[in-house]
Amino acid sequence: MKITIEENYKKLLSLGFKxxxxxxxxxxxxxxxxxxxxxxxxxxxxxxxxxxxxMEIEIYPDVSSKKKIFEVVLIGSFKELLIKNKKYGSKx
Length: 92
Fold this sequence. Notes:
This protein has helices spanning 5-14, 78-88, and strands at residues 18-20, 32-39, 42-48, 53-59, 69-76. It has 92 residues and is α+β, with helices and mostly antiparallel strands.
């Protein structure tokens, strides 16, 4: 039995992810899922778009900069995303 993207989205919704939509005609899977997490002293995000799972951390490019950026630290599978969510996302 193949698990669909919509089933993965339902699983992530039950784990506290929020759906971010992009309007694409006739595509119910458009958009992505997102959850904010804390990784030690860093703030981060977990993303899933139906194809890729990403984990990013918020950083400041240099000491004098007030503008923050997000740096990708993991590109993986849906299963890896669930593992990272269990490790970092359940503390909120």
